[in-house]
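Collaborator request log, item 7. Partner lab (contact: R.S.) asked for a structural prediction of GNAT family N-acetyltransferase to inform their binding assays.
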Amino acid sequence: METPLSDGTVTLSPLEPDDGPAHLAGEDEQLIRWLSGGPGTPEGVAAYLRHCAAQWAEGGSLRAFGIRVDGGRTLAGTIDLRSEAEGLTRGQVNVAYGLYPAWRGRGLATRAVLLVCRYAADVGARAAVIQVEPGNAASVAVARRAGFTPGGQRFADDGTLFDRYVRELS
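Returned to partner:
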């Protein structure tokens, strides 16, 4: 990606190796529960960020962005697109996001989802899907504010139940 995506408040740009310390500092129980499944370690986060960079460089199925504020200077969370993920059909991308506690409740996640949907449409995706565990009310609210509509439920291979929210992209 040559230039960051921005709406003037939120900027999305690829995650970078230098984002590791800020990501670890922002991690809390909610991010662990709903997004990562376990606490991060410096080594684990560094490996993930290297994987993200490789996916960008190789044109892989993952596009991991930092959600940045303050003119792109401060990492407030992450959002990613996956074109190959459990439960997707051809032309769909999965959207997953998380904000660090200090940045929640300001509408930043909704802004980030709208920006990443614009990017997804520009690279040829037909629809975006947000898969949310039913108890994650904050994520459901983001999906609805970003124009996603209920698209049924599904069980993941590990037995986790997800509510699906879908938004057609133009």
